[in-house]
UniProtKB/TrEMBL annotation:
<dbReference type="InterPro" id="IPR003593">
    <property type="entry name" value="AAA+_ATPase"/>
</dbReference>
<protein>
    <submittedName>
        <fullName>ABC transporter ATP-binding protein</fullName>
    </submittedName>
</protein>
<dbReference type="InterPro" id="IPR051120">
    <property type="entry name" value="ABC_AA/LPS_Transport"/>
</dbReference>
<keyword id="KW-0067">ATP-binding</keyword>
<dbReference type="InterPro" id="IPR027417">
    <property type="entry name" value="P-loop_NTPase"/>
</dbReference>
<keyword id="KW-0813">Transport</keyword>
<dbReference type="GO" id="GO:0005524">
    <property type="term" value="F:ATP binding"/>
</dbReference>
<dbReference type="GO" id="GO:0005886">
    <property type="term" value="C:plasma membrane"/>
</dbReference>
<feature type="domain" description="ABC transporter">
    <location>
        <begin position="7"/>
        <end position="239"/>
    </location>
</feature>
<dbReference type="InterPro" id="IPR003439">
    <property type="entry name" value="ABC_transporter-like_ATP-bd"/>
</dbReference>
<dbReference type="Pfam" id="PF00005">
    <property type="entry name" value="ABC_tran"/>
</dbReference>
<dbReference type="InterPro" id="IPR017871">
    <property type="entry name" value="ABC_transporter-like_CS"/>
</dbReference>
<keyword id="KW-0547">Nucleotide-binding</keyword>
<dbReference type="GO" id="GO:0016887">
    <property type="term" value="F:ATP hydrolysis activity"/>
</dbReference>
Amino acid sequence: MTGQYAVEVEDVSLSFNGVKALNKCSLRVKEGESLGILGPNGSGKTTLLNLVNGYYKPEEGYVKIFGKRVDGLPPHRISQMGVARVFQVTNVFTNMTVLENIMVQSVWMKNVKKIRERASEIMEMVGLPAHLKHELAGNVSGGQQKLVDIARALLPDPKILMLDEPVAGIHPTIKQKIIQIVDTLRKQGKTLIIVSHDVPSILKMVDRLAFMNAGSVLLVGDPEEVRQSSKVVEAYLGL
C-alpha cells in the first residue's frame, strides 16, 4: 500500500423515493489495499459501489478516484480511469463462448491477437480450464460464469476492482478459487473493494473491514476487531 487514497467517499447522501439509501456516508480506500464492506441487507453496500462506479450521482458530498472528483461522471469515464466492477448477479452472454465473453468489452481494440492472448492468460489465472474457451457460456456452471465475469473485469488490467458478493451462492471449490484470485491480486498491488455477507470468507480477503448500517459506515478497522464489535454482533443477531 502506498498510503495514497485510490477512492475517497466523503459525506455522500442519496435517497430513493424519499428513503435515505446513503446518509452522510464516508469511506477511504488506500491505493493497493483490499477493503471489505460488511453489513446487513439494505445497509447501502451495493448503493455505495454504484456511486463509486458512476451509476448514481450523490445528492450531497463527493467521490474521488486517485484524487480527482468523479461524482457526476458517467460509468464509462470512470472505467477509463482504471475502475472495474464485478456484479453480484452473473452477467454473461449465454449465446457467446467463454472466450468471447471475456473479450467482449475490448473488441473495439485493434490488436485482437494480443487481446485473445491476454484473455487466455486471464482464464488460466482465474482457474478456467482452457478447453472451455470455445464452450458457450450458457453451458458452464454458475460458479464458472462468475469466474468469466471476474476474468472480463481483469482483462484491461484495472487499478481498482470492486467485487459485489463474489462468493455468494457459489460451490465451495469455486469459492476457494475466488479467494485465491483475490490473494493473487493483493500480491500484485491491486486496490480491491469487496462487498460480502460471507464473514469467514471476507476475513480471508481483506486488509481492513468496514461495517455499514442504515446507509452509513459505522466502523472501519482491523477485520477481526470489526467482526467482534457489538454493533456488528447486534446487526447480525449474534453472528
